């Protein structure tokens, strides 16, 4: 009876997640298209009175409905379908099935009331990891192409082309995924949105500050004038150094991640060796109480590994 309850909860969770995602993907695209058409050409710059100069800070006041917050927690971005190498229905169904399977097998150790939350957390964690991993790979690929894109814009502007044509050359000559982002940005410009605001929308999708730098640079140039080619060349040099620094940080973080993996695996390798040398010391884990302790220890080990990875990631961002 308890297992039937768990399977029912898992099935309901699957239906709820699929319904929420399908609803957002189907209705959200139409809603965003209406907003783009309604706000085409509308300014989003906030004027300030200091020194009588207009502000170049770009701010947005977009609301976040409850479903969108859930998708943000799961790291699923419906605005970037191209980043999903694995279709999102497969990821959701696989995560829910794994969560149900894990909860079903944990009943004999922890009971129904603990196994159900553990299964739900495991399923959500796997879904979040799959979406986050694909998003991180996509953003990293875009990030590595930004210096080449800015350099191509500099060469086009020095050849006498306007900014719009320079961006079209980027959308035509660069490889995906940055080509797709520039093509989408040019689509926003085509319906009347200013270039700097269109670039800020790219920043909102990817959360890469380099696009905000480029947006502020173009916004400042449109308001104050100046040598745009030289400014973009300096920006390209800064972004290129940021890319190199990010590569060095990833190389240094790889050592810490390796150490975290060793710390996770080492106790179980030691237990396996002990079972071959002195089986008496690990024989108690064959009992129900021993198996329960082993599951608790595995859970704490995985939790510690995730905390270490989170600390490494935060240190790399800082």
From TrEMBL:
This is Type II secretion system protein GspF domain-containing protein. InterPro entries: T2SS_GspF_dom (IPR018076), T2SS_GspF_sf (IPR042094). The keyword Transmembrane helix applies. Keywords: Cell membrane, Membrane, Transmembrane, Transmembrane helix. It is found in: Cell membrane. The chain crosses the membrane at residues 6-25, 86-104, 110-131, 260-281, 293-312. One of its GO terms (cellular component) is plasma membrane. Its main location: membrane. Residues 151-273 form the Type II secretion system protein GspF domain.
